[in-house]
Structures are given as structure tokens and as C-alpha cells.
User: Which sequence fits this backbone?
């Protein structure tokens, strides 16, 4: 044991990844509109696991971060009149994708 570096660092990733797609549909998204300024659309872009589709443990840890910091931050914005686009890798593992969708 040189320098106390033998202890393994262990992440405790998100445990409850869903097996199926959440029941939200595109029809819900089509209903979105800016309630105050009908001709203005505020868009928030978020990238999630772009070019990292096969890194499942990293994805689980990032879902934890997303759930802990990103979603609450977006929910507590002074206005909810925005369109939130979350970009993912097209080859993202379906369980990670469903876990991400479950948070929204």
C-alpha cells in the first residue's frame, strides 16, 4: 500500500433505469406554446452523452447528476415558458434514454 491508493473508487450509479419507454408522447410536446409572448420561443439546449453511447456506467452517473441538479434547476426557473431540447447520441442505450425521459 503505497500512499494509500489501494482503495477502489466506487460510483453508486442510478439504480432504477426503466425497462420501457415512459408514457409521454409527441402529442404533449405539440401543445407547447409561450403563454406570455406568443411570437417568442425561448429554447434551452442540453447535450447528454453525445458520442458516448456505449459508456453505460458513465451514463448512469450522469442521470444521477441530471436528476439532482439539472431538472430541479429547470423546474425552478422564474418562467416555465421555454422549449427544452435535450440532444442525445442516436445510439444511446434504450435504458439510459428511458431513464432520462423518466426524469422529465
Assistant:
Amino acid at each position: 500500500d503505497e500512499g494509500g491508493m489501494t482503495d477502489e473508487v466506487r460510483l453508486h450509479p442510478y439504480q432504477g433505469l426503466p425497462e420501457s419507454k415512459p408514457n409521454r408522447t409527441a402529442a404533449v410536446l405539440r401543445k407547447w406554446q409561450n403563454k406570455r409572448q406568443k411570437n417568442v420561443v425561448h429554447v434551452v439546449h442540453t447535450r447528454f452523452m453525445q458520442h458516448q453511447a456505449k459508456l453505460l456506467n458513465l451514463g448512469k452517473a450522469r442521470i444521477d447528476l441530471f436528476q439532482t441538479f439539472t431538472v430541479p434547476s429547470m423546474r425552478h426557473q422564474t418562467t416555465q415558458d421555454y422549449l427544452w431540447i435535450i440532444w442525445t447520441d442516436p445510439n444511446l442505450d434504450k435504458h439510459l434514454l428511458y431513464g432520462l425521459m423518466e426524469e422529465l
Remarks:
- The chain has three helices and two strands.
- Confidence is low (pLDDT under 50) at residues 1-14.
